[in-house]
Each structure stands twice: as structure tokens, then as C-alpha cells.
UniProtKB/TrEMBL annotation:
The keyword Transmembrane helix does not apply. Residues 13-361 form the Kinesin motor domain. ATP binds at G116, Q117, T118, G119, S120, G121, K122, S123. It is a peripheral membrane protein. This is Kinesin-like protein 6. PANTHER family: STAR-RELATED LIPID TRANSFER PROTEIN 9.
Length: 1027
């Protein structure tokens, strides 16, 4: 009854803390801006694209760990000034860890959750690094300190468990045996709730033992991640401390579970309807985190009084095990960690929203008393009643003796049970001590080896898993690879690792690495195939993504700071070798586009995943290649503004010459499905059920993550500027169609032809000097697509086709030309007639400032042609597309300013005056002609308007050539492997292009000036003669 009453009064909300970390190396190199500010417990985040867009959140605790700190001699990060705003590890523990510990000592279940994107500081806050211990080790220190301080009043037993959840499989990180196929099972019991069957629990009586077990679990986690090709940032790690307190005097046992949970990275997948994947996320990689979000949302709705029918605890392994922590019998704290960098804005905002929902959850915690101890209490109470009865019924003698005998037997039985429990604890403790002594001996041996030999140190994306595995290179020759059958062999496992992958030689205090045939070895970002001498702190990548740091002989080490060679350093080095330099994007500019930095960030993050996907494709004989590409790197919109850049993955079925373009989200999903197929292949291969080298691709094609139905592919685009239409000047262009990264895909011949309503081309007499003359009048023109030349898409495979897509003005859907197939230089001969029935200022502005973007779409055998959607499009019976209706249907934009209206009225007034002047001059000319003086002039002198129109036409055509020269200049770059001579040749070529551009521009402007001067001179002469 007491527990129930306690539960009625202990209804409390989940406590939520937010911690902001410093910039990491990549963010510093990218010149990132801090977009997060903090005042007491309130946090504000600013949208880097809109300075006025801010969101504020309030939490129970807020920790500023971004700036204002220094590193003392012992390596601890402390505030620069006493009382500074920087929150160190101690201040976080005092608020959060002490509360968790106090709740556990009182007998409550306690849970600490760490949430945030990968690299946001979750593991640093939970575990720490070096002398900066995190919440878990500090909690263990304080727990055993409290046990020692209270050992006179209670006896305490502590059990430690450590598990990992990856892809909905539970892995025991302390298991002595081999990994259970499919993971451990989660079961449910009425008394215990959900629990992991067969999970090893190790008794501990000191904090060093717990730290040793954590190191053992981390080593297992690192090895498993490498062998299973698992991404540790997508796994959840749970540490469970079971605390049992036996109060002898009160005859009470309090038992509490402390759950310390490091959740998987909460990367926000940028997805939209266009990125939908035909294969749902068949793996359960994201299931636990998604379900956790659904549980938190449902519980938050319950807290504000909404009616919720179902809370989906049972939908994932993680939420089953955390059921008591969320809305149940636990006192729970969540620490959400985030990066303040502008390139992480979306992920950080998502984390803050998630944490805001979590703080509404209400739990009902109770003090947990052991059922066995409650039974003892009840028996003692019963004993007291029986003794009172015996004192009253002492005359019955024999009957009293019988009852006393039964009571004594019962008491003896219970004492034996208590003693058995105590003996069991001692036995477990002794076994654990033996294991701990063996582990300690191994650690001592490893430290001795570190002082004698060079070695390679594993580097992992998760900093907590880096530096765990040390592979020593002793004197002599050592093979490294999958095989471990010989005594002089270093065994490693991972994607792309061969049976005999490479050879280390340690001779005369020199260490060399020799790759063997067919193996992939990268040293300091560059692929090597010959024997290479290793230097201290060289970076090695073996196979697709097994990363190691070479530590030289003890005499070479000195006081180097090895921590800067983290996983990001390896990937940035690889990206630099491919020409991607993250830091260069901000050179010379203090305001770098955050979206561009985010693209480079994604590029580096996806590089190892693409390497792994290629390796799995090779081992499974899929004949599919993956390549990273930056979409829209060299493309712009109809206004000439840069398009939003994003990472896409080009997928090529090499044998079939089929190509797909996958979004980042789709590729990440498919990558995990590929891992499932690969692990199935490895399992079957290990059972010898398949022949060596054959694939296990038993999946039907529609379930195969390496395959998709073919579909049209956007190859590139070209811009046809519309300014000439405002003057009714025809335009004929040869346009370069550029791919996403600036490569030339084709040459497109296109025309803009001003015409009559019947489609007849207009002549020079119809050219306008003032575009405003079009206002309120009808405008007809034709877009003519004549021919494509040099199609790279079809040159690579003849069974392909192309279409041209375009969209004009307010057209909601693109229009497409008919498909043409099997021809590198196809004739398109496609003509589309557009008309504006009542030309508005908005359309005129559009023509003078915009281009029609002509998109080149690639078709593949088996895919459907693109079809123009005529929904919402008005056409005449003659097939003319109406782009603007009569006046009332197209009112002037409502957001025009008063100033703009005044300018418009002034321009109209000037235009009216010029028209009157032109009318007077025409009357004077007619009068002169009628007088007979101008007979000769009538036959040889054209009108000034026609002369000016012809000059404008020449100028527009010459400027087209100038614009093309400018585009060539923008795309002209030196080759990545150019030497000094190559750079000199590039500079000479660049100078020539600049000279040609300058000459063309000067000649065009000079010709226009001369033509205009001649027209004005002749006009003055005529005015003087005929006035």
C-alpha cells in the first residue's frame, strides 16, 4: 500500500536539458557561424537563410559549452574566468547526475537519455573523453562512494549490463560467447515488464570494475561494427546498473534500475514526395528512433489532455525496454545535444523540437521494494500475532508446541533463503573478480607492448570507439587480412578486406606496407600499390573503409596530439584528393552560403558509405557502381540565380548501361537494405551453402536494393534569354547544355521568333524601340527547337533517347518535345506558339529579366516518355498556348510600392511626349515630301526607327556571342593533376580568353555607339532640312 501511495504523489515530468557544443574542426574550417544563443534556460536558434526568422525554446536546464573555456595542465576543460558561462562536465553532473543518483538511492528507477545528431556531443556528455569524464563514469564513482559512506546502515549490491540495439537486434556487449544469430530476445513478464532474455549481468563492487567492463563492451562494439559493416552512429547503447539495497534493521530491500541510454544519431532526413523510394525502409535501422518519437508525441498529447487511443511501446525493441522510463515507473532526464553551426541548422532545430515534446511527458515513479523482503515483513507480523496467541493459550501445551514447531520451521526456511541469496551474490562477485583480473592482465600486457612496438590504432566515426583496437607490428614480416591461420598474421575483418590484404615489414626500425594484388590500400588520402614506408601518424585505409592511424616507434612519438586525426580528418583528406576542399569555400568571404557548406558536409559524410556500397556490389556480383555528384553545382534558374545545391548519387548498372539518380535519403535507405543482403550472403557463405565467388542474390528483382525501374534522367540545361522578345527582335542561338557539374552534354540550336497571330514571322519594320509599346497589346512568338548536336548521353549507349522540357512564365507544368532515339545529332524540329492576349507590365518585366530554361532529359530503354501536362493550360483551336489573358484576369502585382507607380507614371509621360514629337516629325516629313524637295530622299533614306531597330538587332546578336564567351571563361579551370607547366599553359589560355572577351565586348558596344551616333546625326540633318 505504501508503494501505491507513493506513486500517487510522485507524478512528475521528464526533466530536459540542452547542451551546445563547440565547433568541430570541419565547422571551423568551413567558417561556420554560430546561430544559437542562450539566456539562462532559454535557447534561441536563428535560420541562417533568414536573419529575422528565430525560434525560442525553454527547458529545465541549458548548458553553454560552445565558448568561454580553456584547457588546464591536466587536460580538463574549464571556464576561462571564475563564474564564466561555460558549463563543464562537473556542472552538468551536479544538475543531472546527482539527481539520477539520489533517485536511485531512494529506490526509484532512474533513466538518463542522450539525444542528438551524430557528432553533436552525446557521447562526450555521457562518457567523456580523457580526463573530462562524462555522466556515466562520474555517476559510478559517486554511486560507490555513497555505498561506502552508508555501509553501516545497508548492504548494497550492484550489477552491470551493457547492450547495443542495431537494426532491431539486441547485442550483449559483455557476452563471453559468440554473437547470437538474430540477437537476444526481448520478453515480457507481468512483474518485471520487458526484459532481455539471456543478458549477462556482472556484479561489481568498485568504480574501476565498472570502467573496465565499459571498456570491454566498447571493444566488443567496435569489433562488431567492423565485422558487421554496421554504422555505430545508427545504434543505441544501453548501460543498465541494477542497485539493490538491503536495510537489515528495517527489513526492507530497495531495488532500482539506472538506465543510461546513448541514442542513435538523430540525423534529419531531408525528404520530399519526389524522393519517395519504391522500397520502404525494410531494415529497422530507423525504426527504434522513429517509434521513440511517436511514443514521445503520444505521451505529450496525453499530458495536455488529448485523447490518445494507443501508445506504440511495442513497435520497437528500444521503446519496449524504455517503457518504464517514458510515462511509467521511472524518474527520467533527457539531455539533448546540438551543434550551433549554421550548416547544422535543420538537425539542431529538429533536436530542439523533439526535446520540447519530451518535457511534457509525465511519469509515475514508485519506490521499488523486493517481494521477498515484503514476505519476510508479513511473516514477522504473523509471528507477532501467533506469539500473542500462544501467551493466551499456554494451557494447551502440546498444540502450542506444534504451532511453535511449524513457526520455527518457517523462520528457518526463510533464513536459509536469505543466506542462499547472500551466498549467490558472493559467488557471482568472485567470478566477476576473476574475469576482472584477467582483463587487467590483458590491459597491462597491451600497455607494455605499446612501449615496445609500433602499432596501428583504429579510428571510428564514433569518437568513443576510436583508439580501442591496437594491432602491434613486431619485428619481422606480418601479413594482414582475413586469414588468421598462420602465427605471423594480423587478423582484421571488414568490407573489401582480402584473405591476404597487405604485408607489414618491421626491419631495422623502419616499417613498410606492401599492398597485395587486388587489395585497396590508401595512405594519407592517396591510393598506393607499391611498397610504402610509413611515418609516425600516417593515416591508413584498408579495404573500403577500415581506418587506422599508424603510431611509430616510442622514440618517434614525442608529445604529439593524436586527437586531431579523427574520422572526419580521414574523410576530408580523401575528399581533398578528389578535389573537394571544404575550407576553400569560405576563402576571402566572411558570408559563405550555409547551404553550400552543408552540401560539402554531406559529401564527406557520404563518401565512406558510397565506398562500402561499391564494395558490397562487387562482392555480390551486382555490377552496379555508385558515384557522388553535387546536383546543380553549375546550374542556375530562369533569373540566372544559382539553384539550391544538394548531393545526389549516380547509380550505373555497368553491363546494361542503365543509370539512376538517387537522392541522399534514398541512398541511405538503400545502403542499409544492401547491408541486410550482404550479411545474408556472408552467413550463407560461412555455412558453405554456396560456391566460392557466386552471388546469393535470391531476392526477386523488385525487392533488390541495387535495382530500380528505369526512368527519365535530367542530364543538364541551357538558358535562352527572352529579352529580345520585348523588342520583337528574332533570336537564333546555339546553346551549350551543361550538366550539374558544368560538363557539356550537347549543343542545342534554338530560336525565338516574334510572329503574327497566324504564325507568320515579323520583319524588321515590326521591331520596337520602346518595349512599353507592348503594354495592353497582343504579343505572339514561337519557340523553335531545331536540333541537338553531340549528345554525350547517346554517344555512350545508342539505345537511348532524349527530350527537351521547358516552362514559360506562369505555366504550372513543363512542356516536352517529342522523344528522339538512337541519334547523336537528332533533328528536333519542334515549334511551339505562345501568345499574350493583353501584355502586362509583369510579363514585360519577365521577358526583360528572365530566360526559358531548356532541360535535356535522357531516356533509357524501357522507360516511359515524358508527356506534357495540359492541366490548367488554355489553348486556342489553332494550338496556340495562351500565357496571359485579358487585362482584368492579370491585375498588376499588389505589392508594387507607391514609388514604383510614380516612376511608371513618369515613364508613361515621357513616352507620350516622345510619341508627340515623333508625330510632329512625321508630319514635317510628309509636308516636305508633298513639296517635292524630298523626292530623292524618299527613295534612299529609310526611317530612323527602322535604322535603330536594325542596330539593336545587330547588337543583341553580338551580345549573344559575348555571353557565350563569358560562360566559357566561367567554366575554364585547370586540370586537377596539372604540374607547373600545365598551370602556365592554363594561365596563357585564360589570358587569351579574357582578351577575346574584352575585344568582343568592346567591339559590340563600339558598333552600337557608332550606329546610334550616325542615326542621331542623320536625324538632326533631316530636322534641319525639313523643319
Amino acid at each position: 500500500m505504501r508503494a501505491k501511495a507513493a506513486g500517487m504523489h510522485s507524478k512528475d515530468c521528464v526533466k530536459v536539458a540542452v547542451r551546445v557544443r563547440p565547433f568541430n574542426k570541419r565547422e571551423r574550417d568551413a567558417g561556420s557561424r554560430c546561430i544559437v544563443s542562450m539566456v539562462t534556460s532559454s535557447i534561441t536558434i536563428q535560420d541562417p537563410r533568414e536573419s529575422q526568422s528565430r525560434r525560442s525554446f525553454c527547458f529545465d536546464y541549458a548548458y553553454w559549452s560552445h565558448s568561454g573555456f580553456t584547457r588546464d595542465r591536466g587536460g580538463l576543460y574549464v571556464p576561462e574566468e571564475p563564474g564564466g558561462r561555460y558549463s563543464d562536465q562537473d556542472s552538468v553532473f551536479q544538475d543531472l547526475g546527482e539527481g539520477v543518483l539520489e533517485n536511485a538511492l531512494q529506490g526509484y528507477n532512474a533513466t538518463l537519455l542522450a539525444y542528438g545528431q551524430t557528432g553533436s556531443g552525446k557521447s562526450y556528455s555521457m562518457v567523456g573523453y580523457g580526463p573530462n569524464k562524462g555522466l556515466v563514469p562520474k555517476l559510478c564513482d559517486r554511486l560507490f562512494q555513497a555505498i561506502r559512506e552508508n555501509q553501516d546502515t545497508r548492504q548494497c549490491q550492484v550489477f552491470f549490463s551493457m547492450l547495443e540495439i542495431y537494426n532491431e537486434q539486441v547485442v550483449d556487449l559483455l557476452s563471453r560467447g559468440s554473437r547470437t544469430p538474430g540477437g537476444l530476445r526481448v520478453r515480457e513478464e507481468q512483474q518485471r515488464g520487458f526484459y532481455v532474455e539471456g543478458l549477462r549481468t556482472v556484479p561489481c563492487d568498485s568504480a574501476p570494475q565498472v570502467e573496465q567492463l565499459m571498456e570491454q563492451g566498447t571493444r566488443t562494439r567496435t569489433t562488431a561494427a567492423t565485422h558487421m559493416n554496421a554504422n555505430s552512429s545508427r545504434s543505441h547503447m544501453l548501460i543498465i546498473l541494477q542497485l539493490k539495497q538491503i536495510f537489515s534493521k528495517e527489513s526492507i530491500t530497495k531495488q532500482s534500475n539506472i538506465n543510461l541510454v546513448d541514442l542513435a544519431g538523430s540525423e534529419r532526413q531531408r525528404s520530399s514526395g519526389s524522393e519517395a523510394d519504391r522500397l520502404k525502409e525494410g531494415t529497422a535501422i530507423n525504426l527504434s528512433l522513429t517509434t521513440l518519437g511517436n511514443v514521445i508525441s503520444s505521451l505529450a498529447d496525453v499530458a495536455v489532455g488529448k485523447k490518445v487511443v494507443h501508445i506504440p511501446y511495442r513497435d520497437s525493441v528500444l521503446t519496449k525496454l524504455l517503457q518504464s522510463a517514458l510515462g511509467g515507473n521511472s524518474r527520467t532526464v533527457m539531455i539533448a545535444t546540438l551543434s550551433p553551426a549554421d550548416i547544422c541548422y535543420e538537425e539542431s532545430l529538429s533536436t530542439l523540437r523533439y526535446a520540447e515534446r519530451a518535457k511534457r511527458i509525465q511519469n509515475r515513479a514508485v519506490v521499488n521494494e523486493s517481494p521477498t523482503e515484503r514476505l519476510v515483513k508479513e511473516l514477522k507480523a504473523e509471528n507477532a500475532r501467533l506469539l500473542q496467541r500462544l501467551s493466551r493459550l499456554g494451557q494447551e501445551g502440546r498444540r502450542a508446541n506444534d504451532e511453535t514447531k511449524e513457526l520455527r520451521q518457517l523462520l528457518t526456511h526463510n533464513e536459509l533463503q536469505i543466506r542462499a541469496i547472500q551466498t549467490l551474490w558472493e559467488q557471482h562477485l568472485q567470478e566477476a573478480l576473476k574475469d576482472w583480473e584477467q582483463q587487467y592482465a590483458n590491459i597491462t600486457q597491451e600497455r607494455r607492448m605499446m612501449q615496445m612496438h609500433p602499432y596501428i590504432l583504429n579510428i571510428n566515426e564514433d569518437t568513443q570507439l576510436s583508439g580501442v583496437v591496437k594491432l602491434f607490428i613486431q619485428e619481422g614480416e606480418w601479413d594482414i587480412g582475413l586469414c588468421d591461420s598462420t602465427p605471423r598474421y594480423i587478423s582484421i575483418k571488414g568490407l573489401g578486406i582480402q584473405e591476404r590484404h597487405a604485408v607489414f615489414r618491421n626491419e631495422q626500425r623502419r616499417v613498410t606496407l606492401t599492398p597485395l594484388a587486388g587489395s585497396k590500400v590508401i595512405v594519407n588520402g592517396n591510393s598506393v600499390s607499391q611498397t610504402t614506408e610509413l611515418q609516425h601518424l600516417d593515416r591508413l585505409i584498408l579495404g573500403s573503409n577500415c581506418t587506422y592511424l599508424f603510431i611509430g616507434f616510442p622514440s618517434e612519438r614525442g608529445g604529439d596530439d593524436w586527437s586531431r586525426y579523427d574520422y572526419d580528418y580521414f574523410q576530408s583528406e580523401l575528399a581533398a584528393a578528389e578535389g573537394i576542399h571544404l575550407g576553400e569555400s569560405s576563402a576571402g568571404s566572411s558570408q559563405t552560403d550555409p547551404s553550400l557548406l552543408a552540401v560539402f558536409y554531406d559529401f564527406i559524410k557520404l563518401m565512406p558509405m558510397v565506398a562500402e556500397a561499391n564494395q558490397m556490389s562487387q562482392e555480390l556480383n551486382k555490377d552496379v557502381e555508385f558515384k557522388l555528384e553535387i546536383k546543380n553545382l553549375a546550374l542556375s534558374d530562369s533569373k540566372g540565380h544559382d539553384l539550391k545545391k544538394e548531393i545526389v548519387i549516380i547509380v550505373t548498372a555497368v553491363g546494361r548501361k542503365q543509370v539512376w539518380m538517387w537522392s541522399k535519403t534514398k541512398f541511405v535507405n538503400r545502403k542499409f537494405l544492401m547491408e541486410d543482403a550482404y550479411q545474408l550472403h556472408q552467413a550463407e557463405k560461412s555455412r558453405d551453402n554456396i560456391a566460392e565467388g557466386l552471388s546469393t542474390a535470391v531476392l526477386p528483382r523488385d525487392k533488390d536494393p541495387f535495382w530500380d525501374p528505369v526512368e527519365p534522367l535530367l542530364l543538364g540545361s541551357a538558358h535562352l534569354w527572352l529579352q529580345s522578345l520585348a523588342f520583337r527582335i528574332p533570336l537564333e542561338e546555339q546553346l551549350e547544355v551543361l550538366g550539374s557539374e558544368g560538363t557539356e552534354e550537347a549543343i542545342l540550336q534554338a530560336q525565338l521568333v516574334p510572329c503574327t497571330s497566324t504564325g507568320l514571322a515579323q520583319g524588321e519594320d515590326d521591331i520596337l524601340i520602346d518595349p512599353s509599346e507592348l503594354l495592353g497589346r497582343r504579343l505572339d512568338f514561337q519557340l523553335v527547337l531545331e536540333q541537338c548536336c553531340g549528345l554525350r548521353w547517346i554517344r555512350e549507349a545508342r539505345d537511348r533517347g532524349v527530350q527537351i522540357g521547358f516552362r514559360l512564365f506562369d505555366c504550372s507544368h513543363p512542356l516536352y518535345s517529342p522523344a528522339v532515339w538512337h541519334n547523336v545529332n537528332p533533328l528536333l524540329d519542334h515549334r511551339v506558339h505562345f501568345a499574350s492576349l493583353h501584355t502586362s507590365q509583369r510579363l514585360l518585366d519577365y521577358l526583360q529579366s528572365s530566360a526559358v530554361v531548356l532541360e535535356l532529359w535522357g531516356l533509357q530503354e524501357g522507360c516511359t516518355d515524358l508527356v506534357s501536362s495540359l492541366e490548367g493550360v488554355r489553348m486556342t483551336a489553332e494550338g496556340i498556348f495562351i500565357i496571359e489573358e485579358a487585362g482584368p484576369a492579370n491585375p498588376a502585382p499588389v505589392d508594387c510600392s507607391v514609388r514604383a507607380q510614380q516612376d511608371m507614371e513618369e515613364l508613361k509621360s515621357v513616352n507620350s511626349s516622345l510619341r508627340k514629337e515623333n508625330h510632329i516629325l512625321r508630319e514635317q516629313l510628309n509636308a516636305a515630301r508633298n513639296g517635292g524637295e524630298g523626292v530623292r530622299g524618299r527613295s534612299v533614306r529609310p526611317s530612323c526607327d527602322a535604322e535603330f531597330a536594325r542596330s539593336l538587332k545587330v547588337f543583341y546578336h553580338s551580345m549573344t556571342s559575348v555571353r557565350g564567351q563569358l560562360q566559357r571563361l566561367r567554366r575554364h579551370r585547370p586540370s586537377e593533376d596539372s604540374d607547373l607547366l600545365g598551370f602556365r599553359l592554363f594561365v596563357d589560355e585564360q589570358s587569351r580568353l579574357l582578351r577575346d572577351f574584352s575585344e568582343q565586348l568592346e567591339q559590340s558596344v563600339s558598333t552600337l555607339k557608332q550606329d546610334v551616333a550616325a542615326i542621331v546625326r542623320r536625324k538632326r540633318e533631316r530636322s534641319g532640312i525639313w523643319s
